[in-house]
Amino acid sequence: MQHTGFSAGRLAWHLCLLSGLAVTTMSAVAHGSKAGDISIDHPYAVPSPAGSTTGAMYFRALKNNGEQTDRLLGARTAVAASVEIHRAAMDGSVMRMRAVEALPLPAKTTVKPMHGGEWHLMLLNLKAPLKDGDRFTATLHFEGAGEKEVSVWVQQPRSSAAGHER
Ligand SMILES: [Cu+2]
User: Fold this and answer.
1) What is the pLDDT of residues 78-87, one digit of tens each?
2) CA distances to 63, 70, 81, 145, 151 from 107, in Å
């Protein structure tokens, strides 16, 4: 599914565009957890724009400490009707994002699915706006590591994947 062509997607795309501009220092305040071999570093979401029912969720990092490739297959949360994994890519001079079936987590590798970067989780049909300072739980589904419930912090973007090494 392409984002372009329906209004919710356009708003969500806006969100990504705007958040990509904010490149400052990440706060020292963070949280994390583990699911099997996967270290889940600081799940967060950005405040949803007024009038939007779409949100975007990120991680400061997902690190696969294991010897086997794993994949994030999806997530569910009470705050949204559904969650999609989205990948952004340049299409000529336009950034487009589309739903993909999984976010690959190669063995012994750290992936940084931060805002402004290649990956995010799109929260569709939010039950209520996501406000700065909110926290909500989401259950992540990894192919190898299984399911893990995490706390997601809603915050204004403080840094971005742009310019970070993978
Ligand atoms: Cu998206």
Assistant:
1) 999 999 999 9
2) 9, 7, 31, 12, 24
Q: How far is the CA of 49 from the centre of ligand 1 (A)?
A: 14
12 CA from centroid of ligand 1 (Å): 6
pLDDT digits (tens, 9 = 90+) for 102-127: 999 999 999 999 998 999 999 999 99
Q: Domain residues of the chain, as ranges?
A: 7-23+34-154
Rounded Cα gap, residues 119 and 99, in angstroms = 10
Residue 119 CA, ligand 1 centroid: distance in Å:
8
> Ligand 1: distance of its center to the CA of 44 in Å?
15
Q: Which CATH number fits domain 7-23+34-154: 2.40.30.10, 2.60.40.1890, 3.40.50.720, 3.30.200.40?
A: 2.60.40.1890
Assessment of whether the complete model's pTM goes beyond 0.70? yes
Distance in Å, CA 13 to ligand 1 centroid: 6
